[in-house]
Amino acid sequence: MTARTIIVTGGGTGIGRAVAAGFAAAGDSVVVTGRRRSKLDETVAELGGKVSAVDFDASDPAAVTEALHRLPATIDVLVNAAGGNTGMDHPAPEPGDLAAEAAAWRANFDANVLTAVLVTTALLPRMPSGGRIVTIGSIAARRGGGDYGAAKAAIEAWTASLAAEIGPRGLTANVVAPGLTVGTEFFRGRLTDARRERLVGDTMTKREGTTEDVAAAVQYLAAPAAGHVTGQILHVNGGAYLGR
Ligand SMILES: NC(=O)c1ccc[n+]([C@@H]2O[C@H](COP(=O)([O-])OP(=O)(O)OC[C@H]3O[C@@H](n4cnc5c(N)ncnc54)[C@H](OP(=O)(O)O)[C@@H]3O)[C@@H](O)[C@H]2O)c1
């Protein structure tokens, strides 16, 4: 396959890092993005090859605009992996504290929806026919998950309209929706054994998902051969939720 140019938001850690590693191993040029320069530099050093990093906050329109001159002029594959449950970073709002409730909902919307929408909107003009957009959703979109699940559900709706918009240009847009995936910073080190056991128990495979499991699904949707697969949600959760 001819080498391609790949952008992976959230590529410094976890799922995004595994996605970047897969493309780098195939000889592609990969740009990983995120807010923490130090994490990105570590990833670039570890992955080697044609991997570079551009730091910016993908939820901030001005920061995305500023980053454009540091990003490649032509992009074949965009993987929107930036995100996470911002509720992990602060205590749950007190009941009745509507200001805190609103802030929590906005934070998850910004982190999971705006990151993908802003970067995609900014980079679409740089994506020629054959381009692929893959956004990381979540099992939470189908299971509940409050403000985080609602944000990931919005990703699914947005991807459906995006796929229709860009299909005539020969581009596809899909979602990969993981279940429990270890080897990431997602749980901020606070995943209890009891919760881990419950989530593994929900699967048919009776194991945790790995970042490589998710990266393999992204690789498939990003492949030139997947050109007639668009607007879809690919669930990578060991059967914990059946997306049929
Ligand atoms: N792990 C799971 O069990 C699981 C399950 C379902 C879905 N997911 C989804 O998978 C995706 C990847 O998460 P992960 O599990 O790999 O966790 P992770 O290790 O925390 O990765 C999230 C990445 O996103 C980046 N990021 C977050 N907000 C950003 C922003 N505003 N601008 C730029 N970069 C931002 C973070 O880097 P900086 O902090 O340096 O910006 C980090 O590298 C997320 O969308 C998450 O919701 C994870």
TrEMBL record:
Record InterPro entries: KR_dom, NAD(P)-bd_dom_sf, SDR_fam
Q: What is the lineage of its organism?
A: Bacteria, Bacillati, Actinomycetota, Actinomycetes, Jiangellales
Please give the family membership noted in the entry. Answer: Belongs to the short-chain dehydrogenases/reductases (SDR) family.
Gene3D superfamilies, sorted: NAD(P)-binding Rossmann-like Domain
Membrane spanning stretches? none
Which residues does the UniProt record annotate as the domain Ketoreductase? 4-179
A molecular function (GO) term: oxidoreductase activity, acting on the CH-OH group of donors, NAD or NADP as acceptor
- Taxonomic source organism: Jiangella alba
Q: What would be one Pfam family of this protein?
A: adh_short_C2
> Sorted alphabetically, which SUPFAM superfamilies does this protein's record hold?
NAD(P)-binding Rossmann-fold domains (SSF51735)
Which example biological process does GO assign this protein? Answer: fatty acid elongation
Superkingdom in the source lineage: Bacteria
Its recorded name reads 3-oxoacyl-[acyl-carrier protein] reductase
